[in-house]
## 1
Amino acid sequence: MRSNLAGPRLLLRRLREVMAEPIKAQARLDKIVVLIASNVVAEVCSVYVLRADGVLELYATEGLNREAVHRASLRVGQGLVGLIAAEARPLNLPNARAHPGFTYLPETGEEAYNSFLGVPILRAGRTLGVLVVQNKSHRTYLEDEVEALQTTAMVIAEMVAAGDLEAIAQKATGLDLSRPIHSSGTGLAEGVGLGHVVLHEPRVVVTNLIAEDVDAESSRLEVAINRLRLSIDDLLASGDMAGMGEHREVLEAYRMFAHDRGWIRKIEEAIRNGLTAEAAVEKVQSDTRARMLRQTDPYLRERLHDLDDLAYRLIRELMGRKHGPLSSELPQDAVLVARNMGAAELLDYGRDRIRGLVLEEGGPTSHVTIVGRALGIPLVGQVDDIVSLADAGDAIIVDGDAGEVHLRPAADIENSYAEKVRFRARRQAQYRRLRSKPSVTKDGVEITLQMNAGLLVDLPHLAEAGAAGVGLFRTELQFMVASSFPRMREQKAQYSQVLDAANGKPVTFRSLDIGGDKVLPYLRSIQEENPAMGWRALRLGLDRPGLLRTQIRALLTAAAGRELKLMFPMVAEVAEFIRARDLVDRELKHLRRHGHTVPEHIRLGVMVEVPSLLFQLDELMMHVDFVSVGSNDLFQFFSAADRSNTRVADRFDTLGIGFLRALKTIVDAAQEAHVPVTLCGELAGRPLEAMALIGLGYRDLSMSPASLGPVKAMLRTLDAGRLSARLLPRLEPGHPDTDIRTLLKRFANEMDVAL
Ligand code: PEP
Ligand code: MG
């Protein structure tokens, strides 16, 4: 059958004229349906728009009963129109009434029509409505008619996205595009942020849809594709990918798509039908996206992400826009939304205007998470499809505590969160007031509160939170956020900057704790069955002494003329510490021999985090200058419960009687040997647990900066002597009630301890 279409290009040209006319949205939509009907030689052309309540409302029609406009409606999934919206794909039927999904809407008067062609109105893969043509005759619409209708649907999608149709909505429900969305992900950094969406990779809005000169558009596409291919080849060749948050595999996938003839042919076809090159890329991507979103196979969905990224890159190439938003363009309350982001990219935004971060990917140990936490930015990761659901400027709430995201929240949700934020701010202000107050219990016991850190951005917290020093500086973080192995010079620079920033307060560096699950992208890693118990930390350092010696030399030179406190992680035998100490001695000799200034004092310590050390405490205390309890690892090995496995991590109580006895054994042994002891695991940062530690005899705790205020508020209201008198007898064998957590809560309650 000959196509009834008088050329999709002609249709697009007419559409452009209609779009340029200074008329109201309803009048424009009415003209568009007339135009399409005459172009496709159809008796009927109708536009249905998806409302926020999941109903498709008839917005305009040529051919059906006009009285039905804004009255007739179908739910998603109901009738043929509802089916198209639900499945986001065209339906082309010579005899619509024979289709099992057909639903007759009497108010429209559509009983006279047989053939039916409907296409979804798509934008960035989201269905915003449905565009339909119908004929009395039994006919199957041709491929290029389907194309023409899809292209026209893009123009309507832009009208919806621009908010033009919101104004003519009859109901207060609003359109689907502005529907509130609640998504659950994984809370990666605590805190709550309210603000407005900033897309890290802004979707370039293609407003120039209709081509003036098809040949010129084809050549633009060719040039842009060549440039895109070259830029991917460059990235692959440079090997410098970590900063971009990209891995080789992803780039290989990009390269494959960038050479895919099928993809390029579809874009060329859309240009021949009258779209500009960028609109053609967007159309093809929108179709692909809608098709692939129905895929449940995680591999294919992952590839969709790659293809999405590639299409956006190509569109940006065509529109000459290469960069994300500049910091100066950010709103005061920006919530960054991205598929993923490199740590360096987050740092580039600066801290001032960022209220939160939402990622489709991101895990608890990914670099961006580490930096996000260090900057105190509420962060939720693993939020499906948030990039395509969110539009720049949308209101959004990030709840890093619960791992929830509310996009375009309803007023009541927004109010209750605003209250939560105000409450947190009031508490923070109280904690700030405590900053300069002494860290002493009610009965006069002095407790040293230090903070944990790992990046330079952490250091300002020292003064802000009023910490006495850095009790744990996790040196591996510098290695994890770098794109290649930091050289001796870079390590030294970082350590001296840390010491400078600490301004005379003590800093306890911990030697590299890499290996296991802390992988460095540039360091070949070995697959291990149990990485936490594998070749990590000091084990790796002793087997590859070059690595450890470089770090030791960097630390010794950075601390020249000052004090150097260094401890070693994952020590299981005293002999390991002695070997590490020998390495320090050798480096020290080497530096002295070459006339370098060395630290004025060197204190070497051990992290007590492998249970075997509990049975070597006396020998250990004879050799070390200090110890620090790594309660995170100690507890996971003590209770044989993987700290990163959510199924078991919280299974056993850290205030269980067995673990408290272990912690007591350590503090007793250290005190008896007059060896300073700190505890630097997460336990120290939780007020009730910190209270228990003080009851056991710990007098030096190191925690995340945000915990310093709550812990100080607790201890200033605590009578340490009375607590010990209540707690310690209960740790003796033979007492029938072993529920220590309840005992501690009751004590706090009775004594008005501020928990
Ligand atoms: C610990 O294990 O308690 C500790 C402080 O070190 P990390 O959490 O870095 O393993
Ligand atoms: Mg540890």
Note: The domain at 6-178 is CATH 3.30.450.40 (Beta-Lactamase).
## 2
Amino acid sequence: MASQGKPLMNKIMRNNPMTDTMSHRFTKAIVRSPARSITDGLRAGDGPDPDPDTFQAEFSAYVTALEKAGVAVTRLPALEAFPDSVFIEDPALCLPKGAVVLRPGAESRIGEANELEPALRRQFADVRKLAGPGFVDGGDIMVTGSEVIAGLSARTNRTGYDELAAILKDWSYASRCVETPPGVLHLKTASAILGEDIVLCTLQMAQSGVFDGYRLIETAPGEDAAANAIRVNDTVFVSAGFPQTTARIREALPDVSVVELPTTQAALVDGGLSCMSLRFFQPE
Ligand code: CIR
């Protein structure tokens, strides 16, 4: 299934209204403004702090771009007590049938879930909550057109996945868990769903077999960080600065617009495009 250095796909899949509402058809999004304490954001390396003003500018461009792609965005206020709270994807999972309040795997982030819960209850009739003791970060959850894939990582463990899987089963969603490669923060740090069965991913992920059966677009050599892209309706957003991967996506998805967005500040604290919103489909 993996390509030999260039995308195998040459035509876009027909949209299926039953399942593309899971993978990329969205009507709404929830975001949280970046806190100025983002300078204390978690990161694997010892790189420089993000600049709060530049972060805010990049975040504003991101929100405007989501709106342009057709989603109504709910903006939640910054939480200074939680430096990483702009990465709102991690404390929840939003699906057409309901929302799950997750349990983020980093100690400094676990309180983000309670902060987010009231906003989820305003938007969803059915809100479930992981009771623990396991952990799940939303960055480890990929929702495709046919299943929910959970990456086990330093932030998501088997106990957390098992509790989530029971909720998903109750909603009739198929799920499975896979290993996120060592050294990769989240499953979606290294992969993105760009259509019901179309996955953008790094060579390492492509070779892992996790996405066997999916149509793969590989990131170009040296551009692994481009894998954290998102598709929102008929637009794919990709981080700016990865021209070869962007070209591969354009070639593979000729009917979709591919838009580059700056994520220089999020990248300093191991974040990217998927992390800064919760995107979901709700019929009018
Ligand atoms: C963290 O380490 O939790 C944040 N600094 C970055 C979170 C990125 N979230 C994501 O990929 N879903």
Note: DSSP finds seven helices and 15 strands in the chain.
